[in-house]
Structures are given as structure tokens and as C-alpha cells.
Specification:
This protein has one domain: Orthogonal Bundle (Arc Repressor Mutant, subunit A), CATH 1.10.10. Helix content is about 65%, strand content about 10%. The protein is built from six helices and three strands.
């Protein structure tokens, strides 16, 4: 077996998926990472930037930049909180709501392309295996002090 076969294959899959996703998202005027933020607001409109950062497990500064770009593009807007002027609430605009609906079909299209020729059992197995990989990575991240892999 070739050394680092998992890393190589996973990297190739991620690159191909990113390329396809980026092309489809560009048609909607969006960039990778932005759909997740829109979907969060689609489920819970009017939450704070801090809440968005917590839900997406992303640094607040990154969320601030994403919100500014999406606001500039007309996908969302901000309002000051009625009770606490220090807090901004983020809402989907009509354009953002339409984009969420369009994104659902884009995601389904990409999934269909990725999983073509897979049986339902294979899809279920693949999902379970990827969840295991993610769990392992999350567990490692929580137990390490940031000192690296110690190879």
C-alpha cells in the first residue's frame, strides 16, 4: 500500500469537491463557507454574530468578515438589538431567503454527482466512516495541547 494513501485520496476528493462547489456557488454570487451562515439564519433569523460564530464553531472575526461581505451583496442585513445596543442581530434579506432555497437544489445536485453509482448501503457506510474520521479528529484536537502531532 502506498504511504499516505488516505491523505492523498482525501485531499484529491476535497479538491475536486471544492472546485465543483465553488463553481456552482459562484452562479449564486456566493463563496464557500457563506452558505452555512445563510442556512443558520434560515433556521434562526435575527441571532447575534456571537451566536452565529458559536453555531458554526468559527472565530468571531471570521464571521464578521463573512457578514460584511454578505451584507454588501444584499443577502442579509443587521439591526441593533432592541434591548442591548452593543449587540447586532443578523437577518436574511429576501435575496438571502431565495438563495437558501436555490442552495438546497445546488447541494442536492453536488451530492448526486459525488454519490453517483453508489448504492444506498455504500452511502450509509461512507457516511459512518467519515463520521468516525471526524470523531477521531475532534477527540485528538480536544486531548492535545496544540503542541503538534509529535511524530
Amino acid at each position: 500500500m502506498e504511504d499516505f494513501y488516505f491523505l492523498k485520496t482525501l485531499g484529491q476528493v476535497m479538491k475536486a469537491h471544492f472546485s465543483l462547489s465553488h463553481g456552482e456557488l459562484e452562479k449564486e454570487g456566493l463563496y464557500p463557507g457563506q452558505p452555512q451562515l445563510l442556512f443558520v439564519l434560515n433556521k434562526k433569523d435575527g441571532i447575534s454574530q456571537r451566536e452565529i460564530a458559536d453555531i458554526l464553531n468559527t472565530k468571531p472575526a471570521t464571521i464578521t468578515v463573512m457578514i460584511k461581505r454578505l451584507e454588501k451583496s444584499g443577502f442579509l442585513y443587521k439591526k441593533n438589538d432592541e434591548h442591548d445596543g452593543r449587540v447586532s442581530r443578523v437577518f436574511l434579506s429576501e435575496k438571502g431567503k431565495i438563495a437558501c432555497n436555490n442552495l438546497k437544489s445546488v447541494i442536492n445536485k453536488i451530492d448526486k454527482i459525488c454519490l453517483e453509482n453508489f448504492s444506498d448501503d455504500e452511502i450509509e457506510t461512507l457516511n459512518k466512516l467519515l463520521i468516525k474520521v471526524k470523531t477521531n479528529l475532534d477527540k485528538y484536537k480536544k486531548t492535545k495541547d496544540g503542541s503538534g502531532l509529535n511524530c
